[in-house]
């Protein structure tokens, strides 16, 4: 049977919206899990159990209804799964972006602090816990890539990779190097160094 890529794309978009809405629902439990432990447990159960079940449901429905049970492994198993999770992740990433950027900007830093506390309470070794505590807190990726214009993106990314691939001797020079590539103050990897 010949592949109908439009049919595959249309159905995975449709199913990806439902899976993405489920992931948004699950993310609400993750957010509420910071305050109430039971929501964190429910969010973990939803994370592990249901995406494979939803994938199976949408895959079987696509195979029986639209492909008349003649779906190949590549067309149905691989392409369908990749597209389904791609479209679902767009919806969830939009909600995560809104949450981390505008609703609760300190969310990632709070998670990092809790991770350090947990590493110090469980017996994993003092050297690992101290190295973890010495690291700077993770910076929101949106802070140093916000308002990225095409003229400043590529030199900024190049300088970011250049600075991060070299040792401590280049850090002082990288700060000067980045000032040169800052176009209208949008791109800088000074926060990463």
Describe what you observe in this structure:
The protein is mostly helical and 193 residues long. Helices cover 73% and strands 0% of the residues. The protein is built from seven helices and no strands. Helix 1 (5-32) runs antiparallel to helix 2. It is elongated, with a radius of gyration of 22 Å.
Which shape, going by the Cα principal axes?
A: elongated
Largest sheet geometry:
none
Helix content percent band = over 70%
- How many beta-strand segments? 0
Rounded radius of gyration (Å):
22 Å
Features:
single chain, 193 residues, mainly alpha, 2 domains, 7 helices, disordered C terminus
Short recap of the structure:
Helix content is 73%, strand content 0%.
Give the topology, please.
Layout: H1 5-32, H2 37-66, H3 73-103, H4 107-121, H5 126-134, H6 150-165, H7 171-181
Helix pairs in contact: 1-2, 1-3, 2-3, 6-7
């Amino acid at each position: 049977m010949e592949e109908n890529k439009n049919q595959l794309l249309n159905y995975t978009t449709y199913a990806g919206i439902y899976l993405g809405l489920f992931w948004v629902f699950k993310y609400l439990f993750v957010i509420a899990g910071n305050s109430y432990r039971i929501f964190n447990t429910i969010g973990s159960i939803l994370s592990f159990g249901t995406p494979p079940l939803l994938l199976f449901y949408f895959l079987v429905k696509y195979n029986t209804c639209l492909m008349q049970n003649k779906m190949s492994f590549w067309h149905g198993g691989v392409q369908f799964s990749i597209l389904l999770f791609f479209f679902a992740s767009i919806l969830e990433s939009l909600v995560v972006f809104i949450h981390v950027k505008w609703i609760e900007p300190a969310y990632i830093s709070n998670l990092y602090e809790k991770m350090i506390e947990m590493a110090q309470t469980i017996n994993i070794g003092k050297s690992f816990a101290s190295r973890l505590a010495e690291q700077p807190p993770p910076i929101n990726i949106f802070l140093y890539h916000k308002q990225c214009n095409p003229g400043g993106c590529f030199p900024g990314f190049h300088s970011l990779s250049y600075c991060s691939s070299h040792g401590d001797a280049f850090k002082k020079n990288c700060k000067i190097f980045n000032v040169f590539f800052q176009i209208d103050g949008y791109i800088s990897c000074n926060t990463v160094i």
